[in-house]
Each structure stands twice: as structure tokens, then as C-alpha cells.
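can u do me a favor
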């Protein structure tokens, strides 16, 4: 087994695991999603500072959930049967932020899971995404957890990327919805997949739009001592 402490990813997203695997050896990564699916949400928020504060709170809650799981059962983080003395917990959350006609902001999460999702995605593209620039807002944290005294030390960061989409989405919209790709994607699209046909410009971190801002996450891992550099 590697002597490097495990890195516990508080997520079930294969995209986030793949991205994290670009920063650390994949064999160090353990996926452990939060037990609770309850999140504060963004429904009551209309300004960027409010949304940034809320995403930080969501990330903090995710990390706390995963850390409590580890402290209750340290063997979760065991590699090859050996319990580590410490682990690093990575938590993240992403939302798509669009501008409404009145100038206030609106957070688009994932489309609904019922049969209404195609209509919801169509409305998002027609009303908020096509021909406009939106924001992809992410929060990420790295927490070092020591099992000997249950001490914790956390580092966190927020990342904002500006994404502009083509003005005429109609020729592509039915085809894109038929792919099924919008399901489970913040804002109803995946920039790394078929959704790229809509995107004309990205200002900022591309990996943030995919699901985990690599530069910011690497900086946090270095600050925490999880990786060298």
C-alpha cells in the first residue's frame, strides 16, 4: 500500500473522481458520498454574494457529513486492510447561475428526475442559456482529518467561470435532449460532451464547468499537505 494518506472524495460523481485522478494517483482516492441528500438550495437567492455564501455552506455541510462517517468508522478509509492515521476529505458543489429578465440571478441545478425534464431543459436553453453568458459557480474544500485526536483543519475556495452559448439553439435542441445527456447535469448540459455544440466561449476554468476546478483544488491539496509542491 502507498504510504500517502487516502483522499476521500465526498461525492458519487464519476466526473469529479476522474478530474481528481488527474491531480493525485487514482489509487489514493476513496469515494464516500454524503449520507444526507438534504441541501439548503438556492431558491431564495438572487445576488452573486448570496449564491457564493450558500455554495460554501453546502460544501461545508457535505464535508462535515463525510468526516462524521469517517470518525464513526475509520475503517472506511482503510486501504488493503490498514487503517491510516489521517485522511484528506475533498468536497465540492457546482451550480449554473443565469440572469433573469429583471437582472436578478437564478440558480439552475440539475433537471427534475421525472418525465418533465425535457420540457424544463428546453425552457432553460430558450430562456436563459441560448445567446447569453451565464456563470458556473463552484465551491471546493479540502479537510485534513487526524484519527488520533479527531482534529480537523480545512481549506476552501470558490471558482466562477463565464460560459457563453450560441444564439440559435433550436437546430440542436431536440437532438441534444434525445441524447439524454442533460439528465443529472447542473444547468442541463455537459460541456465535455455533446453539450459542447452550444458553447462558443469559456472565460476561466474549463474543468470547473466539467465538475471540479483543477487549479483551485490542486492549490488546496498543496496547502493541506496532501500533495507535494
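np, heres the sequence
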Amino acid at each position: 500500500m502507498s504510504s500517502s494518506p487516502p483522499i476521500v472524495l465526498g461525492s458519487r460523481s464519476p466526473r469529479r473522481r476522474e478530474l481528481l485522478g488527474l491531480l493525485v494517483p487514482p489509487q489514493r482516492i476513496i469515494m464516500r458520498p454524503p449520507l444526507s441528500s438534504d441541501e439548503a438550495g438556492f431558491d431564495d437567492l438572487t445576488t452573486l454574494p448570496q449564491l457564493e455564501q450558500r455554495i460554501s455552506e453546502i460544501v461545508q455541510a457535505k464535508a462535515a457529513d463525510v468526516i462524521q462517517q469517517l470518525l464513526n468508522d475509520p475503517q472506511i478509509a482503510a486501504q488493503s486492510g490498514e487503517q491510516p492515521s489521517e485522511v484528506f476529505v475533498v468536497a465540492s458543489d457546482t451550480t449554473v447561475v443565469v440572469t433573469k429578465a429583471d437582472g436578478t440571478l437564478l440558480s439552475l441545478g440539475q433537471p427534475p428526475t421525472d418525465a418533465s425534464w425535457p420540457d424544463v431543459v428546453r425552457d432553460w436553453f430558450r430562456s436563459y442559456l441560448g445567446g447569453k453568458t451565464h456563470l458556473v459557480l463552484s465551491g471546493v474544500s479540502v479537510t485534513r482529518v487526524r484519527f488520533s485526536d479527531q482534529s480537523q483543519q480545512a481549506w476552501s475556495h470558490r471558482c466562477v467561470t463565464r460560459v457563453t452559448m450560441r444564439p440559435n439553439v433550436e437546430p440542436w435542441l431536440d437532438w441534444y435532449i434525445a441524447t439524454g445527456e442533460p439528465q443529472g447535469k447542473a444547468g442541463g448540459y455537459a460541456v465535455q460532451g455533446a453539450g459542447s455544440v452550444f458553447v462558443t466561449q469559456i472565460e476561466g476554468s474549463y474543468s470547473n464547468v466539467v465538475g471540479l476546478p483543477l487549479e483551485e483544488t490542486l492549490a488546496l491539496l498543496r496547502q493541506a499537505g496532501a500533495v507535494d509542491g
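The radius of gyration is 19 Å. hope that helps!!
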